[in-house]
Amino acid sequence: MSAAARGLAFAATMVACAWGMAVAGETAGLAQEERLCAEGIPEGCLAAGQRLAGGKGAPRDPARAVELYGKGCDGGSKIACLLAGHALEEGDGVPQDDVLSAGWYQKGCDRGEATACGGIGNAYWIGRGVPKDVVRAAPLLEKGCGGGYLDACANLGALLERGEGVAKDERRAVKLYTRACDAGNARACSNLGFDLVRGAGVRKDVSRAAALFRKSCDAGHPAGCSNLGFAHEHGLGVQQDGAQAARLYVKACDMGEAGACTNVGNLAKEGRLVPKEAAEAARRYQQGCGGGDGGGDLGACARLADMLEAGDGVAKDLARAAQLYQRVCDGGASIGCAKIGIYYANGIGVAKDEARALRLYEKGCDGGAPLACHNLAHSLSAGEASGRDEVRISRLFARACDAGQAESCTNLGLRLASGIGIGKDERRGAALFRKGCDGGNMLGCSNLGIFHWTGRGVAKDRSRSVQLFRKACDGGIAMACAGAGAAYAMGEGVPKDVARAASLFQRGCDGGHSQSCESRKKVEAGTAGR
Asked: Which residue range forms the structural domain that includes residue 76?
């Protein structure tokens, strides 16, 4: 949550609560206010703190102001609790301290200050200074919103929209966003616009959504600028304008919107809307990922890790890539668990730990990452035969295949063809080889070629078989080069071509297929003998 967004709500609260005491303080002077504070009168502490925080009639001293607010709060002033919490949350002239801030907000809320309830509710919502707890956050945000704290209304709307900590209620979320937006809360305008794009809790209206994104952006809210960029990129309610979209993404990124940095990184990586430049992409992903405190956009962290792994746009750094993948996994993005699992399984950037790798694959698979399910099945299938759960392995490959993991389709096809952990079914096995091949897994193409050659599970078609062998050979499957070479050597499915056969056998040999080496020698010997 940005300081700019919070400041709008707090400014109104501070003006309202400070009016009487601050004016009186100007007359009485700082010395008198501090004397009253020392005598146990909380209003004196509050007035002196406000004077020092604002530099009114005395040199500005934020640290002393927070100390006085604390005394005022302990003496019973709920406003002093609120201001102490806010000062420590913002870190304006004092070290930022989310834990102390949350404590002061809680005291203010306990004393009946609605805005303080919103402050501690926000803290529980994002896990700032207190453990993240959306169930506990919801009623606190309700109190804050009821007291007129607009950020609390916006955040409560977000919980209602997602059904986090409360029953899902998109219509009420829209009402809360509308109320806060109409009162000037820029973030609520952005959230409302997003719902209008999706038609969530309100009739879809992209033109109105774009207007709200612009209003939010003009008010200085980075998410509004990012969403307006998205609208321009895709022509939602505004004229499609890639250059303007890129400018808005950059603006939002530089304002601290992590997701916008990810968008800029993607554009630079792919060369869309902006010049293709890997180093710029990496820089923007770094901005989006942020520091190591758990903030930032996990997508940016994952993409930065990919670039560090490949040395693309940045120096190759597997140890740092491992740290980022772990962070992505810990943040709830299952692809991070799949990737860091690979690192632990192979000792890449971390000490090798196969047991930990399995746990990470389990977590990633349960979170919906097909790569993690595939890796888990592959790891389990490599274990001792006597202890393998073949049924579970087949189910994991099936789950990954259904989610688009082409290699898993090929592996499941092999198990169906052999009846391992699943009933033997060569027709289904062939269909899975085709699915794997269509998904880019060359071993699937090779296996389907074998089935077409022999007529297992599919019609016998050696011409089609050779096509598949050649595709797989071009994709790096040495055994498929041997299959294509044999077809040309015999003239099966293609015209006989000994020279081409020798060339294909050589490719198979170069790829490590020893039988191809022998076949090449035989073909060449046969050619020389004619």
From this structure: 1-168
Closest CA to 469 of 489, 455, 448: 448
Report, as an integer, the average pLDDT of 319-334: 96
Distances from the Cα of 488 to the Cαs of 309, 479, 519, 524, 530, in angstroms?
41, 15, 12, 13, 17
521 contact partners, CB below 8 Å, separation of at least 6: none
Q: Which residue has the higher pLDDT, 275 or 397?
A: 397
- The predicted model gives 334-348 an average pLDDT of 97
Q: Is residue 494 part of a domain?
A: yes
Task: Say which residue the tokens 């992409």 belong to.
Answer: 281
What Rg, from alpha-carbon coordinates, does the chain have?
32
Supply the pTM of this predicted model: 0.78
Angle between helices 354-366 and 318-330 (to 10 degrees): 40
Average pLDDT, the chain: 91
pLDDT at 274 > cutoff 80:
no
SS3 state at 314 = coil
State the CATH number of the domain containing residue 115.
1.25.40.10
Mean pLDDT for the stretch of residues 235-260: 94
Q: Are 195 and 174 in contact (CB under 8 A)?
A: yes
Question: By C-alpha distance, which of 280, 287, 264, 279 is closest to 313?
Answer: 279
Tens of pLDDT, residues 465-487: 999 999 999 999 999 999 999 99
Domain end call among 118, 140, 168: 168
Rounded CA gap, 110 and 131, in Å?
19
Q: What is the DSSP letter of 75?
A: T
Which amino acid would we find at residue 379? S
8 Å CB contact between 276 and 269: yes
In a domain, 330, yes or no: no
